[in-house]
Predict the 3D structure of the following.
Amino acid sequence: MKKSVLLSICIILAIIAVCCALRFFVERDENTWLCENGAWVKHGNPADVAPSIGCETQANTMKDTFTYNWSTMDTGPYGDSVTFAISTDLTTWYPSGEILAIHASVPGAVIKDGKIFVYYVNVSEDGKAEQTGFVTSDDNGRTWSDEQLLEIQGIENRAVADPDPVLLEDGRIRLYYFDINESRVNPSNNRVPSPQRIYSAVSSDGVNFTQENGVRFVRDGAFDPDVERDGNTWRMYVGTPDNEVVSAISTDGLNFTEEGVAFSEGAVPDVFLEGGTWHLFTAGINIATSTDGKTFTATGKSFHSPNTQMTADPSVVKLSTGKYLMLYKIR
């Protein structure tokens, strides 16, 4: 009897110890303060108040130690250029051979009031983080404006990567992007991708943007957001380090919930909805289709710009002529 009681007590004590250990590790990850963009951000319900020092120093250290010597990098966007191609069926594309911007990468396009706006990552200046350049066309891409640099009011110390513009019902442009500085402040550990946050800014003229409050979507390793709207449903597609495209849905374009893997044969997505068919263009550029926007199937068709090392990062819009314009990067 005594042995039985003693054994029971030992088992209970062991269970309590395990629970305490689990609580310690779980709360250590969930209930804590994390340094994000130079400010302490609460995760969960930490017992302690926010640290009084350290975060701003960490952000400043990132700025001091990361050198933006784009012109000396063997890899990176400095060697990229933005160009475009034309199609009548979203499948067969004819390259224009025209360069819209050099030292530029990952374009995103939208049409507002008949004007094409093309936004992209600009790394033309050494010593500066990624900037956002843009060019416009009033005549369906026959002629283009000179390059301008975009500034977003209220963006703080974020750096825009992979801009994706979407035309809203009220005529404004919402620019979705992910902050590439976050991965520099909070690098991944043990080869596990760090959380990437997708943000947005809005503009009534396509030139002057204001940062919107909050975060649109969060996922480990997410990059290159692309948003497409179907009635009251918004879908965001992001690339992942596993070379997949993940989809997320929203009813307002502001709060997205992950839906699942939409495509597992490529990343860097751009999705274009036409006639009930969702067309997915991925880095490569490979083409897949879907009837519901949730799951895509490869068509076996692709587009590669001739005489280039790389054709990637597409963005498709429909012109008033009925033709389609694909912006993309080459190297």
Remarks:
- Residues 13-30, 56-64 have pLDDT under 50 and may be disordered.
- Residues 40 and 53 are 9 Å apart (CA to CA).
- Residues 1-30 form one domain.
